[in-house]
Amino acid sequence: MFQIPDHQVAGHKASKGIIGPLIDNSGRFYKPLQSNNRGSKEESFYKKFSSNTEIPNHIRKFFPTYYGTQHIEASDGSGQHPHLVLEDIVSVRTNPSLMDIKMGSRTWYPTASQAYIVKCFKKDSESTSPNLGFRISGFRVYGNEDSGYWKPERNNVAGFDTNDVRIALRKFVSSNSNDLDGESDCAFVQNVYGGPNGVLAQLLMLKKWFEDQTLFHFYSCSVLMVYEKIKPNEDRSCVTIKLIDFAHVVDGQGVIDHNFLGGLCSLIKFVSEILDN
């Protein structure tokens, strides 16, 4: 019934001796609760978010549907383990292209331990997070039946500089995506980044909410972009934007989440420039 998802581009992936997410054939994604209270914090966030009547309906669509928590056999065969049961975002796609973008110039939350802050500070400082307010955590792009998927090695992505980020965002919407070298044709840029339902329009909708919302601060949260390639002249929406990973969300205490908002504005600038060009 359960299987390891093949579309995961970042995060803890199931492997020998390591517990990771599972999917089923009904469109649900099973994320194991993490240790050190991270799992219980993420579970608490989903419960609070689902029941909060202050969240506008047009914003709820940017968050995976939460179906509760369920004990199932862990992916490593170690026995029953609690899993968050969430919407499998790519279950309706045949050949989805995905990009995971970690938001914020800093990824540690205010009450984190000194050891955790040092760990996050090192990882952040070696990436584009401090300069851009976001970093690309991983992505894969579908080419065609012959070429299949192109997915850069995680170590290479972790070392991206600003120019690499710009290239990757262009390659993500190109028909010739098989490495980071060479020109990008951006054949799908209008269908994916442009239009009333494209990435830019959806990010601007999120930005408007983040300019006002003071309910939550989303540390170490990601924007997941998903689309499926269609013919460049087809006029239909093919893009999904979701926020994921909420183990480090904290109470906003009436203050705007400038850390996330700053990264969101920066990402919008990059996408806008690609569209303009």
From TrEMBL:
It is an enzyme of class 2 (transferase). Keywords: ATP-binding, Kinase, Nucleotide-binding, Transferase. The keyword NAD does not apply. Its EC number is 2.7.1.140, 2.7.1.151. GO terms for biological process: inositol phosphate biosynthetic process. One of its GO terms (cellular component) is cytoplasm. GO terms for molecular function: ATP binding; inositol tetrakisphosphate kinase activity; inositol-1,4,5-trisphosphate 3-kinase activity. InterPro entries: IPK, IPK_sf. Pfam families: IPK. It catalyses: 1D-myo-inositol 1,4,5-trisphosphate + 2 ATP = 1D-myo-inositol 1,3,4,5,6-pentakisphosphate + 2 ADP + 2 H(+); 1D-myo-inositol 1,3,4,6-tetrakisphosphate + ATP = 1D-myo-inositol 1,3,4,5,6-pentakisphosphate + ADP + H(+). It comes from the Eukaryota. Inositol phosphate kinase with a broad substrate specificity. Belongs to the inositol phosphokinase (IPK) family. This is Inositol polyphosphate multikinase.
